[in-house]
Amino acid sequence: MSTETTAPARAGRSAKSLRSDLKPVWCPGCGDYGVIAGLDKALQELGYARHEIVFVSGIGCSSRLPYFFDTYGFHTIHGRAPAVALGVKLANPKLHVIVVGGDGDFFSIGTNHMVHAARRNLDLTAICMDNHVYGLTKGQVSPTSERDFLTGSTPYGSVEEPVNPLVLMIASGATFVAQSYAANVKHLRETIVAAEGHPGFSFINVISPCHTFNREKDFAYYKGRVSVTEEEAKHDRAEAIRVILTHGEGELLGTFYETRRPTYDGSLADLRRRARERHGVPTLEEILESFA
Amino acid sequence: MSTETTAPARAGRSAKSLRSDLKPVWCPGCGDYGVIAGLDKALQELGYARHEIVFVSGIGCSSRLPYFFDTYGFHTIHGRAPAVALGVKLANPKLHVIVVGGDGDFFSIGTNHMVHAARRNLDLTAICMDNHVYGLTKGQVSPTSERDFLTGSTPYGSVEEPVNPLVLMIASGATFVAQSYAANVKHLRETIVAAEGHPGFSFINVISPCHTFNREKDFAYYKGRVSVTEEEAKHDRAEAIRVILTHGEGELLGTFYETRRPTYDGSLADLRRRARERHGVPTLEEILESFA
Amino acid sequence: MKARDTRYVCLRIAGEGGEGVISAGELLTRVAARRGNHVQTFKTFPSEVRGGMAVFQIRTGPEQVISQGDYLDVLVAFNREGYDRNIADLETDGVLVFDFEPTEEAPVRRRRGVDYHVPMGELAKEAGARFGKNMVALGAVARLFGFPLEGLREGIRRKFGKKSEAVVTANLRALDLGARYVEEHLEIRHEVRFPEGDGNPRIVLSGNEAIAFGAVTAGCRFYAGYPITPATGVMEWLARVLPLLDGDMVQAEDEIAAICMCLGASFAGKKVMTATSGPGLALMSEALGLAAMAEVGVVVVDVQRAGPSTGMPTKAEQGDLNLAIFGAHSTAPRVVLAPIDIEDAFRQTVNAFNIATKYQIPVILLSEQSLGYCQASMPRPDFGKIDVFEEEYATVPEDGGDWPRVDEITVGEGYPMTPIFPRYIRYDSGVSPRSLPGMPGLEYRATGLEHDEYARPRYDPENRRAMTAKRKAKYESIRREYGGAVEVIGYPDAEVAVSAWGTTASVMRHAVLRKLNEGARIKAIFPKILSPMPDAAMERHLSGVRKVVVCEMNDTGQYAKIVRHRYHKEVQAVLKDRGLPFKPSEIVPQIDAALEEVVRI
Amino acid sequence: MKARDTRYVCLRIAGEGGEGVISAGELLTRVAARRGNHVQTFKTFPSEVRGGMAVFQIRTGPEQVISQGDYLDVLVAFNREGYDRNIADLETDGVLVFDFEPTEEAPVRRRRGVDYHVPMGELAKEAGARFGKNMVALGAVARLFGFPLEGLREGIRRKFGKKSEAVVTANLRALDLGARYVEEHLEIRHEVRFPEGDGNPRIVLSGNEAIAFGAVTAGCRFYAGYPITPATGVMEWLARVLPLLDGDMVQAEDEIAAICMCLGASFAGKKVMTATSGPGLALMSEALGLAAMAEVGVVVVDVQRAGPSTGMPTKAEQGDLNLAIFGAHSTAPRVVLAPIDIEDAFRQTVNAFNIATKYQIPVILLSEQSLGYCQASMPRPDFGKIDVFEEEYATVPEDGGDWPRVDEITVGEGYPMTPIFPRYIRYDSGVSPRSLPGMPGLEYRATGLEHDEYARPRYDPENRRAMTAKRKAKYESIRREYGGAVEVIGYPDAEVAVSAWGTTASVMRHAVLRKLNEGARIKAIFPKILSPMPDAAMERHLSGVRKVVVCEMNDTGQYAKIVRHRYHKEVQAVLKDRGLPFKPSEIVPQIDAALEEVVRI
Ligand SMILES: Cc1ncc(C[n+]2csc(CCOP(=O)(O)OP(=O)(O)O)c2C)c(N)n1
Ligand SMILES: Cc1ncc(C[n+]2csc(CCOP(=O)(O)OP(=O)(O)O)c2C)c(N)n1
Ligand code: SF4
Ligand code: SF4
Ligand SMILES: [Mg+2]
Ligand SMILES: [Mg+2]
Q: Can you tell me the distance from the alpha carbon of D246 to that of D229, in angstroms, rounded to the nearest whole number?
């Protein structure tokens, strides 16, 4: 398959947008609408054919996203999207695989898979719609919620230190780590385009407010508290972590870390090539002889 | 219960050592023997009563450790020891809970629980016996194995970047992070004593060679390649990570990071106290009235 | 087959998610119970947070309400969709209250019955209550069906008082506007009236609350869980209450962590619980095996929802019976209970803790979406009459005496003979007294490996046989204790029986009482424990029965197969897998058919 | 009941883990097969990496070896413990070769039979082969039982050649010293002889290898797994072979990731497999539900081991049948197969892929510890005769024509009517043609939510009913295709039948053939698919049967209950849960008892 094959014309399909006809089920004003917009723009800019894109998601408000694009998609189970995505990408490395999900999906039940996807440096982009709360289950504390956060499951305030997704992903071995914001569609688009251009595991944490269950942290709250970093992306892990951790009040957007190392899919292709060069490509009959 | 109550004398119990009569099933020369020795010495130095110690482990050669101490223990399932330990500690915060396991147990199947235990800063000590390989299942690649490592599951060499347990634990929020070595029982003992003295989640990565399945990295290999850091423990996360990552060849022992913040058990005790102060301690009958 | 009991009223509100359908319904429910009505409610809402349809239904009457009945007496439709999707459930002579414009293509067409148009949205705007449509509706409903407004006013004050006076005022205004609209614009042309309360204020609990409260009553002081619809309510209730009782509620990182935390706390002496739904129970399968092997008690609540996989998370199904009974590798004894209504949920939860504690075994409590979200009035429990099992721990033998004798198979070659605490000593009951970490002289290591009586790993065949038998013995003890746990209604010698589990049993009870009233010779058989099955009692009650009608909310008849295969009975399996509970009217004809057939034979 | 067939020889080597028991055994096995012997082996070793007892057993004869037989003809004991633990299994007139000093308190006491002391350890030291005890033993065995040394020498060269010439030389020296010791010091006083090979070199595979090779044969090109005893062999074999076939083997971070990676790769067009054991299968329960709902084919191998929980990881049990069949929340269709021997493992694996691919469904292949680690000779498969199912994908309608018509229920209100690819179109078979990511114009989103034919989330009752029926129809199609998949041996009109699954069926076959030889009127019934059960054929073959002897390696009779409950047969369940497989001699008396009883009635 290749980009030359064009999809058949279809009634109702917009010439450029990759959006599907399904209306998002999100609350009006949900940050995730901004993420859709940024993604759509980025994908148009990248010129990807819709049949070459695969959105993989877990479960959560945010994980509903694949339905709203007229591309391939796999709406899987809670927390497991990175593992499913690995299978998709290795089965067909030509596909553009984009993993989307929420802060709970990625950094609570899904942490193990995120850490290992980052470590392997599989060539895909993971976009976390971080609203610091469990949206779909109607408001419980999430691993990115701040201390003292009041929710249905923390009626006396959370006593847990939030995880910093950016730091965790850098520590785990992600090779492109950025933060963006649902209300800054331009920045989001640019960041997604850059992440897609990066060969390896790219992680974008998108601040995507849930004004239904995280009322304080709505768009108004972020107004004036969000700024785009002036600094260049660091190539040094400790340095990048320093930039993130020493940033004072407010939220910093930007690409904090970027480095190149062999991708997992690339290394495996290389491994296959090396193995076959050394041992040849056996027929079934030849394999049988190894049992003789 | 308290340390004053002394356990009944028992035939065969050594006056000081906390070791049990069960002979370890490990290969002769396994690094884990050193870990037992260091632990035994540290526990004696700390003067803990055996009935107040609980070893919690997952599955692996290393996870067999609880049998070899005559204390309480829970030999659970693969990867889940940190979660079980949380339950033990919260049920009875007076207990000294020590989680032990292997690199696979902690950083492959168990990653999610390790990250969140660190984040919560539960007051316990986790000791990873890091042999960079799966011992019990007879030699497969582990998340801490180096690239190109040849094992049963990587006959053409591993293509994955190893995870750095120290960096990952610091990034996750552990408040005491150290590395030690099975052959340096003195350093190990001191590190364990310090970790136990630290209120909060302490993580010690112990290089513990498996000469059976990671033949190259035996004690001989480490001889001369292991040094104890001269630097003080950093209180700054980025700094600590820098020290670990910029260290050149060889393995560095020492405490890299130490900080104080509220422990999970402490915060929960506080939360309970606050809640009861505000709302009182209801009887069942009073709770019933909330349904009226 | 019309057997409407006019003393009961069933009212449904249907609207857009976010329009306050649920909260209005809950307010009405609580106020009704306070004045002494018996009530039972039912709700569904879309898994989308906003949008989609939300439905709240309340059935109320002079006696304990045991099912939702068949048809609605009143439908309150906030919009066209609410009408379209629900009108079929309204009695032909029922009352419709609606707020939308009927058009020529889509008229509100009913042959009989009474319709009232109330412009709820408009009135809400008028009241300045942005989201007040639901209160307008309540006001109108109160006036239309003779429900005292004062109770509702008081309810609004209690409910919103904590928020702000402005909210209270706006809602009160909306309520009054609704009532006033009825007074001023509508002529009452129907008979339906809310029943009078008997003046005994009742308590109202949802299934989730009944379970959470049951847990606390049984002594639960540690809960770890992970949010999941429709079980989250259990966790959220306990998050508020446990700290007040010096207990902890931990939101774990996932379901595997949740059950493992529980096992740790149970090992260290707490009574523990976790609650989840099907996907979470599936994830807990491995750890449930550890609980069985290490003999650590734990109560796991599964508030079932429609699967498979994520399925329809806000819809009802009784689909997890197989997983609950069989979802373990190897033989890992576990107990399965399934409450049939709110009061039963409370009592079975206490029971679950007693079994888990006494037998050191995992107990799975199968609740359901339609129970978890359903609210009902129940009598106030008498705490003095509730048995709560408290464990006796092992002690160190006095004067340095020996531990209780253990069998010689436990003395394996190569194993040290130092006398240590025989944690897994084989008594006839299969249960061995345990110690808690912190107790001096009783150290041992709980383990998921096969082990001997001293908790030492052992793989030899003799030991294996002995320890497998030990764990099995425990299971048999439970069977002895609960062998008679079957509820039977009707004629002992009936040739047609009906059977069900969970909430379907409650609905079926309704249908059976109706048929018994009509003089039908039938009986209903409801096992109170689903694993181990109370075989002796089931067989006794089934003997002589020629046909069993089994109703179940799943696609394959998981329970029907037990009755058919285990008891070799001819089963007429009535399966409903559409995300919604049974109605009595769907069961009655099945009983009729079975009766007819048996007569024919 | 002595029916020893002296053409077969069964030899066991027992020693300390790490003494090379297994590798010596495997060498002997392979060399025997090369000279045309039929062989089957069995091994156990402690889960501890070093220490504990290791046992290797080889049975060889002139025809296909279908079980390990009852007693040993030869026992080679490397030490006292090896003797003590195994001597009971040696034929009273069997041959013992041992290396330890009998003492007065613990003599080597046998009434009949021949004993040879061979100082293996000492000779190994003499040979300068540090770990050469096993080769000394092989040399002695070869000389004692007439096995050509040259084959073993060649085997040693092939095995160690890659390491270094020094290793080869040391091992060869040890071999020769063993042989020489026999020649010089022992007088041969026994009859047992290794059978002659027929000169047709055979292939020898372990169960794990047979499955891995079957997968590759069926077209598997993606494997993700997590190491676990006793399944790791599947993964390690594929790690070597898949890259050569341009496929990938991924060691996942855990079992949940493993199956999810497989689902992703399957969705994108690969034939996929993962292999695990009980604890891993338990962890995969949730994702298996996703596979069923999203209709993504996957083959999951469970090499069962003794549980519950971690249990006895190196010991055998057939304990996961319930979990395999029922381990899902809600109704999640899945297929369960269980090979009975090595050749069957190969063929059933191909079969599993065909079913998974054709029906887009998860298939669980239940292997066992005693199959995974057992090696056996099998005939070379004829690849031309093996059916491998290849999928036909959906295509875009030509000339912009319409998609195939779908039923009107799929047109939900509020759902856009744009004609999109009906991925889950409801055909009678329940199977819908799919597309792969990368195929233009056929975009869709696979999903674990309930959905309509266009793969759009939908929760309404009508759609639910239709889609549940669709998934069920698929299940029925499989039942139709495999309804006759039952192997039957013996008299069609026998009143006594025996039945079993997995490797116990293979042992049982041995016992049945023995009884049939003796003229017993019995039959054996082995279903070749365990879920969905081939009911039609099972009922046909069971009709007229008055008693069924079911043998099974678990504590509760998971399969026995199926036969008893599903087919209403009187079942004599013979359960063995001691970590070790059945022997024919344990089955024969059960058949006798059943025969007697049926005659008596
Ligand atoms: C195994 C499992 N556990 C729990 C759930 C319930 N659940 C669905 S989404 C979700 C978390 C939602 O939070 P997040 O990932 O942050 O996404 P958001 O809704 O905020 O976008 C949970 C706990 C589930 N579907 N499956
Ligand atoms: C759920 C589950 N998966 C897999 C296994 C098999 N298993 C046992 S230990 C182990 C890993 C051992 O490696 P590590 O944790 O590094 O410990 P080591 O043996 O090296 O000390 C594995 C994969 C298991 N017991 N349970
Ligand atoms: S609940 Fe929050 S995250 Fe979910 S759709 Fe609404 S605003 Fe968005
Ligand atoms: S295999 Fe390795 S880790 Fe395991 S006991 Fe032996 S040396 Fe130690
Ligand atoms: Mg979120
Ligand atoms: Mg290891």
A: 27
DSSP assignment of B249-267 equals SSEEEEEEEE-----HHHH
For residue B111, what is the nearest residue in chain D, using CA coordinates? D253
Domains C9-185 and C486-600 share a fold: no
Among candidate residues D329, D349, D337, D220, the one with its CA nearest the CA of residue D272: D220
Asked whether the beta carbons of residue A71 and residue D443 sit closer than 8 angstroms, the reply is: yes
Q: Distances in Å between the alpha carbon of D216 and those of C336, D203, D272, D521? A: 42, 17, 10, 42
Q: Give me the residue from A108, A159, A171 closest to B168, CB to CB.
A: A171
At the second CATH level, the architecture of D486-600 is 3-Layer(aba) Sandwich (3.40)
CA A256 to chain centre: 16
Domain ranges of chain D: 9-185, 204-385, 486-600
Q: At what angle do helices A165-172 and B165-172 cross, to 10 degrees?
A: 180
> Which ligand has its closest atom nearest to the C-alpha of B218?
4
Ligand 1 touching residue A59 (CB < 6 A) = yes
Residues in Cβ contact with B5 at an 8 Å cutoff, skipping those fewer than 6 apart:
B49, B51, C440
Closest CA to D403 of D418, D420, D424, D427: D420
The angle that helices C165-185 and C120-127 make with each other, rounded to 10 degrees, is 140
Give me C273's structure tokens: 């619980």
Sheet-wide strand order for D248-251? D248-251, D220-225, D271-276, D298-304, D362-368, D335-337
* Amino acid letter for position C215: A
What residue ranges define each of the domains in chain B, with the CATH number in brackets?
Answer: 32-261 (3.40.50.970), 262-292 (no CATH)
In sequence order, what are the beta bridge partners of C299?
C273, C363
Nearest residue, CB atoms, A27 vs list C50, C232, C243? C50
Q: Can you name the residues that pair with B180 across neighbouring β-strands?
A: B206
Q: What is the full DSSP assignment across C370-432?
A: HHHS-EEEEPPP-GGG----------PPGGG-PPPP--GGG--TTS-------TT---TTS--
Residue C365 phi, psi dihedral angles, 5° rounding: -105, 110
Residue D203 above 60 pLDDT? yes
DSSP per-residue codes, A256-276: EEE-----HHHHHHHHHHHHH
Q: What is the model's pTM?
A: 0.95
How distant is the alpha carbon of residue D450 from its chain centre? 35
Would you say B129 and B182 are in contact if contact means Cβ atoms under 8 Å apart? yes
Give me the pLDDT at residue C301, please.
Answer: 98
Nearest residue (by CA) to ligand 2, atom 23, is D227
pLDDT digits (tens, 9 = 90+) for C205-253: 999 999 999 999 999 999 999 999 999 999 999 999 999 999 999 999 9
Chains near B (3 or more Cβ pairs under 8 Å): A, C, D
Residue A25 clears pLDDT 80, i.e. is over it: yes
Spatial CB neighbours of A91, under 8 Å, sequence gap ≥ 6: D222, D264, D265, D266, D267, D268, D269, D270
Q: Is C227 on the interface with A (CB under 8 A)?
A: yes
Question: What fold does the segment set D204-385 form as a domain?
Answer: Rossmann fold (3.40.50)
Which is it for strands D522-527 and B251-258: parallel, antiparallel or unpaired? Answer: unpaired
Across B125-278, the runs of DSSP E, i.e. the strands, are 125-130, 176-181, 202-207, 226-228, 251-258
Whether D49 and B138 lie within 8 Å, measured CB to CB: yes
The answer to whether residues A125 and A194 touch, using CB atoms and an 8 Å cutoff, is no
Task: Let me know: does C443 contact B70? Beta carbons within 8 Å.
Answer: yes
CATH number of C9-185: 3.40.920.10
Q: Mean pLDDT: which of A269-278, C3-12, D75-84 is highest?
A: A269-278
Closest CA to D217 of D232, D200, D227, D205: D205
- pLDDT class of B4 with cuts at 50, 70, 90: very low
Strand order in the sheet with B96-102: B226-228, B251-258, B176-181, B202-207, B125-130, B96-102, B53-57, B72-75, C445-447
